[in-house]
Design a protein that fits this description.
It contains 4 helices and 2 strands. The protein is mainly alpha-helical. Strands 1-2 form a two-stranded antiparallel ribbon. A hairpin with a 6-residue loop joins strand 1 (2-4) and strand 2. Helix 2 (29-51) runs antiparallel to helix 3. 1% of the residues are buried.
Length: 120
């Protein structure tokens, strides 16, 4: 298939659907295995951190940060966002953040109420 540029008049070959699918097919077995190993290592590190006697707020911040890293890796490789247009990523990430904010707004009041009930 050939496309002609309206501005320059030059011909360019258009990629076929098979070429596009092969380009977006993602990583092979070796890459997937490496990604799984990284995710398992991060999980093991999280379990190790949980066994330490760190202040709860510091522990929560570190574990939440590592969970965000794991989610990013999972979304990039296993949901194939790495191979999508950047504009799609710019729509997905804010949607996840807005959803998370709504969840926090809905559940934090109950969490504080339960915390106060437990301390009495």
């Amino acid at each position: 298939r050939v496309a002609v540029s309206a501005a320059t008049g030059e011909e360019k070959s258009m990629p076929t659907q098979a070429h596009a699918e092969a380009t977006r097919a993602g990583a092979g077995l070796r890459s997937n295995l490496a990604i799984w190993i990284v995710l398992i290592a991060i999980t093991g590190f999280q379990v190790f951190l949980a066994s330490l006697r760190l202040p709860p707020m510091l522990l929560l911040l570190i574990l939440a940060g590592l969970a965000v890293v794991q989610a990013g890796i999972s979304m990039s490789y296993f949901m194939h966002l790495r191979y999508e247009k950047f504009s799609l990523v710019l729509w997905v990430i804010p949607a996840i953040l807005i959803f998370t904010a709504i969840m926090l707004i809905l559940f934090l009041p109950d969490a504080f109420r339960l915390l106060q009930m437990h301390s009495h």
